[in-house]
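Lecture notes, unit on protein representations.

Consider one protein chain, 786 amino acids long.
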Amino acid sequence: MIDVQAWQVWQDDLQQNNRGHLARPNLSHSSAHLQTGRTMAYRPRGFAFDTGRRVRRPYANFPMIIERPWWPPLPPVGPVEPPIVPPPPVGPVEPPPIVTPPPKPTDRPLTLGNFIFHVNENGPAHHAEEFLENNVVRRGQPFSVGLLFDRKVDLEKDKLLIEFQYGNNPLPSKGTLLRLPVGDALKDGEWSAAVVKADGQNVKVGITSPANAIVGRYHVVVETELAGERSRSRKIDIRNVVVLFNPWCKDDLTYLDDNTKLEEYVLNEYGCQFYGNYYRIGKRGWNFGQFEPGIPDVVLLLLEKSGLGPQSRGSAVSVSRAMSKLVNSADENGVLEGNWSGDYSWGTPPTGWNGSVDILRQWGTERRPVRYGQCWVFSGVLTTVLRCLGIPARSITNFQSAHDTDVSMTIDNYFNKLGYPVDSEDSVWNFHVWNEAWMARPDLPPGYGGWQVVDSTPQETSEGVFQCGPCPVVAVKNGQVYLPYDTKFVFAEVNADKVYWKETEWGYYDYLRHEKRSIGFSISTKQVGLNVREDVTENYKHQEGTDQERAAVRAAVEHGSTPWTYESIITHEDVEFSISADEEVYVGQDVNVTLTIKNTGSESRHVTAHLTAYATYYTGVLGAELGELEQDVTIAAGGEDSVKMTFTPREYLDKLVEQAMVKVFVLAHVDTTKQVWAGQDDIRLLSPDLVITAPSEMTVGQQSVVRVEFTNPLDVKLTQAVFRIEGPGLQRPKAIYYGTIMPGKQATVTEFMTPMRAGKKTIVASLTSNKLQQVTGEKEVEVKRA
C-alpha cells in the first residue's frame, strides 16, 4: 500500500522544487530524494522508469536524473473549485499596436534566406523531371536557381559568389572546390554563373558546368560581399546539386545522337530480358526503376564506395568498370551475392526478383549483400545503376555462352572410356546476360567507341577483382583481343569453338572432333520502343563460316594460351549425326530426343550410340541424371536411321533445377571406320505464364484493383508458393506468401495499387515454388494525371 498522505505531500514538494524545498515521502516500498531544480530519485528495485515494467536490474538503487517523478500523480481528493474567470471588458477593445521591424541595414552584406532550385524549368531541360528527390542536372548545359536574400539586392555594390564543394575534402587543385563569381554572362565549356534576373530581394542565377564535370553530389554555399565584409550561407543538404552524365550533350563522351534510343536506354524504367536456349527463347519483364524514390541516393552511395578519384568519376569508362565490380559482392561487399547452388533458403531465389528497386533499397538500408542473384539479376541491377547515372545501357543475352577459364579460345569437352562426360573447367552456359554501355573510348585508338560490354556477374577476375569491361564490341567482332578491357574473355563467350576429347586405354585423351558453329547464338536485347527481341549477333561476330569470321577467330587465338589449336586435322568421316528434340515441351509433359544418323558412304555402317540426359543449371553445371540409352544401328549405304530417347515427368520432375533445363550428351562410334562423333543438345521445359488483370487506364492518386492468377498444370501440389508484384511509379515491390497450390487448382492474389506518376507503366509479377521457378507475367497500363 502507498501512504496517500505522504504521496500528496511529495506532489506539493515537487511544485516547489525551484524554491529549494526538499521532501522525503514515506512510501512503503521505496524512497525518493528530491533536489532543487532537477529531481534526483532512487527508483525501487527492479522497476523501469519509462514503462513501469518490472525488469531485472543489477543494482537496487541506481540513481537517475529525471525531469519528472517516475510515478504518475494521483487525482485530487475532494471537491475541486472552479477557476476564477475575469469578466469580459466593457466597450470597444483597442487592437494591440502593430510593431514594424526595423529595416535591414544596407551597409551589411546580404544574408541568404532561401535557395530555390527551379524544378519545373530544370527538370524538362535536363531530362530529369522523373527524379522525385534531389536537385538533379546533367553536365554540359546550363540550369537556374533562385536566391532570396534578407534585403533588396544592389548588383552594383553587392557581390555574389556560388561555391560548389565535392566530397569531404574539397580542394581547388583537385577540381572539387569551385568558386563561381556571379557575372553578367555564362562561359561555354567551363563552370560559370551569371545573373539572369534581379528583382528586389530575389535573384535568378544561371549556372553551367563543363561536359567533363565530375559526376556526383555537390554541396552549394552562397557567399556575398559588401565593402570588404563577407557573409556565407550554411551548407545544408536541401541545397545539394547532383550532376549526372549527359548523353544529350555533344561534348559529353556518352553522347548518343538518337533521341529515340536515349528514351529507351536512359529514361525507360521498364524493360525485358531473354533466357532459355537459342531455339526456345523465353522473355521476362524487369523493373529497372532508376527514378524510384531512394534509388538515386543508393547509386550515389555506390559511386562514393567505388574508391575512384574525383576526375575518374567524370569518366564513363572508369565509372562503368567500377560499377561492374560493386554490383556483385565478391570483392567489395557490394550489392548482390551470387548463388548457383540451388539452395536459396537464406534469401530470395534469383527467379523471384522482378526488378532492381527492392534489391538496391535493401542494400542501401542494410549495407550488406542482398541474397541472391544470378546473371540476369546482376545485369538488371547494373542497367539501373548506369541509367541512373546517365550512361546509356541495356541488357544483352548471349545463348550458348562459353566460359573459357584458360584463355585458350576453345571450350574443351572430355569423355571417359565408357562414354560418360567428364567434368571440365570450361563450360557453356545455356544463356548468359551481361550489359552494354554506350560511350566514347578516348583511351583507345579512334573507331572503338560505341557499345561496350560491361559484365557484373562474378565469373573470372580482372586485375585481381571480379569486374569485366568496358570492352569494345567492334574489337570482339574482329578478334582484336589485345585491347582493354577483358576482350579475350568476351570473345570466347561469343565465338570460341568446342573441341571434344576421349580417354584412351592408356589414360590420355585423343582428339575426336572440332565443332566450329557451336558458341554465341541469337545474341539478344530489347528492341527500341517495343517489348520484343532484337537480334544483335552481327554486332559481335561475322557470319558463321565466312572468311572474315574464321580470320577473326585465328587472330584471337594467336593471342591466347594455345595458338596451335587450328592446325589442320584430316579425318575420313562418311556418317553424319544430328540431335533434335520437340519444339515446345512444358513441364509435366514427356520429353523426346532424337539422334538422326545418315550414311553418305557407299557401304553399310554399324553404329553404336550412347545417349545420357541430365538436369542442368543454365550455367552448364550438371545436376541429377535423368536417363540413359545405348543402342546399335546398322545403316545401309546412302540410308538414314534414328535413335529415340524418351523420359517422362515421373523420371524428371523431382530432379529438375531452376530454369527447368535438360542437357543430352551423345557419343556415337562407327565400328567399320572407327569414326567417333560427340555432341550435345539443351532442352528448356516451358512454364505457364501468370495472368494479370488490371484496368488499362489508371489515374494518379486513385486506387485500382490488380489480380494475379495462376493454375497449377502439374499432377502434384506446389508448395512454398510466393507471388511477387511491383511496377515503377505504381507500387513498391511486394512479396505475397501463398503456401500450397493443389494440382489443377487456381491461385489468385489481389493487390490494390495507387499510381504515383503518370505515363505508360508496366505491372510485373512472378511466382516461385518448390517445383516451378520461372513463372512470370506482365501487363502494361496507362496512368493519367488526376
